Amino acid sequence: MYTNTLRKKMEDRAVHLLCLTASSGVPLYCRSRGTSQKQLPFPVIGSLNGVHMFGSNQDVLLTTTCTENARVAWRVFHSSITLIVLTSDDCASDLYLGRLLENVFNAMVLVVGLDDLINIKNVERLKRDLRASYQLIDSFLEVSEMVGDLVQCVDCVLSNNNGVLQSCLDAFTQAAESQFGCLLVRGKVVVATEKWWRLSAQEVMLLAWLVASLAPCSSRDYPIYLPQGSPTVPHRFLSFQLLPGVDVCVLCGPTPSLQEVENELVERFWKPLLEPLKDCLRIQARAFPGCISLHQGIMGLLLINREQKKSLYTVQPHAGEARPESTLSAEERQSVLRSFYTLAVSRYFVSEDGEDKSMSTQEEFQAGFSHRGKECYVVSSDHKCYGIQHEQHQLFLLFKPEVPTFALRNITTKTLVVFTKELPFC
Questions:
Q1: pLDDT tens-digit map of 93-118
Q2: In terms of pTM, does the model score above 0.85?
Q3: For residue 226, what are the β-bridge partners?
Q4: Domains, the chain
């Protein structure tokens, strides 16, 4: 990570995402974000797809490459859809690009279903249907306050009122004739029902990002497919805005109607909890209650529960007046923390669950060692980072440069104890 050039790289960052049919190379859409939002010329699109097809015909799998000013990644899904991402950010890792393409394809499945993507009968109709997924896909290309797209876990918020909110959500979901319910604050999960947590982590992440990506609306009745659980049969996805930025969501069958839930159930169950809901909004950027005090040298935090696939992520770890000045902006802290996570899991923290089989994230030198890395750190001119991995948790902290390097491990260990022993993020 070269943070002395971080600001310039963030300003120059451009991303182009291409989606084509794998058999004929017909473009389905092109999405662009960053300094250059012009659509790529068709000859460039054809060349990017052509070099991949040429490699496939020679039994060569082309996954990523880089030039002097760009990085490119390819991925073919179900021998039907080809996704290509082109970025000018030379700090973009293979891990990030691979998960970006995975998220984009699953977003397409979420909206149109797997059948229409595998058995393409009418290209023009598929193009029209995919427009409904553009907002969700674009959110993965933008700089986000969430990290679930990268870590493949669910962004969460810890509230002092989790108990009462959980009880209300369970009762509300049952009254809506469902067992799948979730309370979101700006795309982060506050509480969810037991059955909701049984969905795959990526499905829960996608549903949260879907709500966050859509324009604010008092209520929605949205047909969705679950990429792992139900990729061919749609479900009703109901969402209701309780406050600006606070939504309650339910997966249900053909009954009850949207109007019935909105008019009879929402006010009955959620109006008495107006203050706890407002409190969730106040702490969502920090992700945990203000009563928890952390070391003043911490500028950012990413805590992952590896078993439950939940994460706490913030670059504003200090409440109100206790917030220290930082040499990095919030966006820069987000970029550094995401980069440090990528570095740690790509080179030092070996995955044991077989994730990302399609795109290896491990360095070859690891094969020569009998042990697995448990801790790592980075020291730079304007920040320091420390990461620690336990059987159930991973914790990554971003520090001010003034914090002594020898103290990083002790502070990180104590911070992990706070969140695993003193708070209910088990």
A1: 889 999 999 999 999 999 999 999 99
A2: yes
A3: 230
A4: 3-142 (3.30.450.60), 159-283 (3.30.450.30), 298-422 (3.30.450)
